[in-house]
Amino acid sequence: MTLRRIQPSELEELAQAWQFAFRQDELDDFLHLTDWLAETVEQLDELPMAKRTPVDAERDPGRRATLDDDPYNAVIRWCRVRADVDGLLSGQRVGVKDVVAVAGVPMTCGSPVFESFVPERDSVVTERILRAGGEIVCTTNMDHLATSAGGDTSAFGHTRNPFDSARTAGGSSSGSAAALYYDDVDVTIGCDQGGSIRVPSAWCGVVGLKPTHGLVPYTGIVGIDPTFDHCGPMARSVVGAARLLQVIAGQDELDPRQAGGVPAADYLRAVAEAPDDLRGIRVGVVTEGFGDRLGVQPHVADAVRETIDRFRDLGAAVRHVSIPEHAWGEAVTVGSSMEGMATLLAGGGNGYHWKGEYWPELASALKRGLESAANDLSPQMKLILVFGTHMQRTYLGEYYAKAQGVRSVLRNAYDRALAAFDVLVMPTTPGTPHLHTEEMSIAERVRRGWGVLANTSATDMTGHPALTIPAAEAEGLPVGVMLIGRRFAETGLLQLAQTLEGQVGWRPRHAGDPRRQNLTRPPSITSDSPVTKPASSEAR
Fold first, then answer.
1. Choice among 196, 237, 337, 378 that is catalytic
2. C-alpha–C-alpha distance, residues 278 and 264, integer Å
């Protein structure tokens, strides 16, 4: 490809952006030099580049979901991708958030910008699912470019809540939560940079784990910022989440998020050995996580406190603990994510300055998409690009650097609390699922969609594992109880959650109960064949 050359007027504009100017007698030399640099860079198009080979698998890209086979609008595309192997996920039908690359299957990120993008490679998570015998059956709906937690900004429409179709499922991994109420989806993959696994899991009454930062490789997944990109399992049960985590966790030498290495663990064994009580477990109830400052609604706080009483009944030693730094989560997240995502998009979705596997095809697709559909970006994405670019140009990364520095203080505060407790607990979200409405101002929708991250964003910034379980309810709707553990201590969180699932159970009950394990196979998914209906007519 021939690179476009810098024109004389552009050269002067580029210099002005950096607050200097060329003398007239310098222009020809600098234009000559930029031409020479362009000719040099053009050589890269002729040089070989390391590429992953997709897993040898049967790949049917399938078709777009319809209202008849997807009444919750949880699925963007029904597909079928399966390798002829037996493993830990044999018989398991997996949905993946539509930022996770599956070779040969269109990927949209919930945005018209990627409408025509078909990845040529599998993400590492995809590879591991297929090599463990799992079958990928759908890509799931999500908020536009993962920039809201409201569940209502996807280019494909909002995802409906299985408990009340007038409400949203939460986001941004909205479809990965709601799709778990379909008979033909057993487990799903979500991603989390501010709470995007845990919010929809809490609102849809399922289990959602944001693992320790770096535990699950992010290679081949569209992210926001490598310093807080997380990928994790969502499931009807703790066992389902543990099984999927067992497969997807572990070292990937090309993921810079794992620079320090990650430990191996037997998550399924930990769950299998879960005791019938919580004797010996020290539970810290985080005062700030229940407070008015973060907008936690009284009926949600009361519902979680009621569940904490069950912890005591099961023998846990429960005490309150104050972590004042927890309330810093919003400032640190905004300071990191605005510039972080603006820079990431300016770098073609890859960003710069990290050692690992880059994704040139993603950059090319993003460039094409922005040229044709930038006006169709969501208000959230437009705000991020405008404000993030403003901060970069005006302060040259000063506030991004400050946010990174404050993150260390926040992380240390959590570490201190977890030195005294085995697990910390608080409500996952400040309120119950939002009623969906089209009659909202841009400002109202943006702030509503970000406000639900009040309790979840802090652990994205610290990297600690956080697990939401559907162990509480308010006004007939699920209320997530969030458990936070030490870094790389997922076995303890999952074991505790398994005890609670067995002794307390999930609430509220639903016609498509999350505990129900339906192992029947769906029909073959082709361009013309129907997909099975939800678990029951009452669940639609």
1. 196
2. 25
**Neighbour tally for 492: CB within 10 Å:** 17
Place of tokens 């310098």: 26
Return all residues near 92 (Cβ < 8 A) that are at least 6 apart.
133, 134, 135, 186, 187, 243, 244
Residue 196 appears among annotated catalytic residues: yes
Q: How many CB atoms lie within 10 A of CB 290?
A: 21
pLDDT tens digits along 375-434: 999 999 999 999 999 999 999 999 999 999 999 999 999 999 999 999 999 999 999 999
Whether residue 97 lies in the annotated active site? yes
- For 99-119, write each residue's pLDDT tens digit: 999 999 999 999 999 988 999
Q: Is the pLDDT of residue 516 over 90?
A: no
Asked if 225 contacts 337 with a C-beta cutoff of 8 angstroms, the reply is yes
**Active-site hit among 148, 172, 176, 336:** 172
- Cβ(228)–Cβ(214) below 8 Å: no
**Which residue in the list 97, 154, 173, 201 is annotated as catalytic?**
97
Tokens 């897993």 found at: 55
Distance CA 268, CA 276 (A): 16
Would the pTM count as exceeding 0.90? yes
Residue 322 annotated among the catalytic residues of the structure: no
